[in-house]
Design brief:
2 strands, two-stranded antiparallel ribbon, mainly alpha
Length: 119
């Protein structure tokens, strides 16, 4: 590994740890930047770098299944009877969402994204 790559890895690791501490301590970005003596632009630059790295890491270990968001449970597939439309039912509190094979994928993606944002 060359020196530039090693330096980048070190910076990403350092920023990743610092940002995790900020989140764990429920510190605002503004307060974090003031305490560390860095600009908000620098903070968001490194946040983008870290997110890009995480995406690369996820792509390297990707399977045909999507990752399960924090707080959610993964369930096993259930065999359906012949002629029966397979599907899924998601229940969160009093909310029930049912989807079948004919449900548009884009609609499911939007629903899941909305659920992740509110949970």
């Amino acid at each position: 590994m060359n020196t530039q790559k090693m330096a980048m890895e070190y910076r990403i690791k350092s920023w990743r740890e610092a940002m995790a501490e900020r989140v764990a301590g429920k510190e605002s970005i503004k307060a974090f930047c003031a305490r560390k003596g860095v600009s908000r632009n620098a903070y968001f630059y490194w946040q983008r770098k870290i997110r890009a790295r995480l995406v690369e890491e996820m792509a390297g270990t990707a399977t045909d299944r999507m990752p399960v968001p924090a707080g959610w449970r993964e369930v096993e597939e259930v065999e359906t009877k012949q002629g029966e439309d397979s599907g899924v039912t998601i229940e969160i509190g009093k909310i029930r969402i049912q989807a079948t094979e004919s449900t548009p994928t884009e609609l499911l993606r939007k629903v899941c994204k909305a659920l992740v944002e509110i949970c």
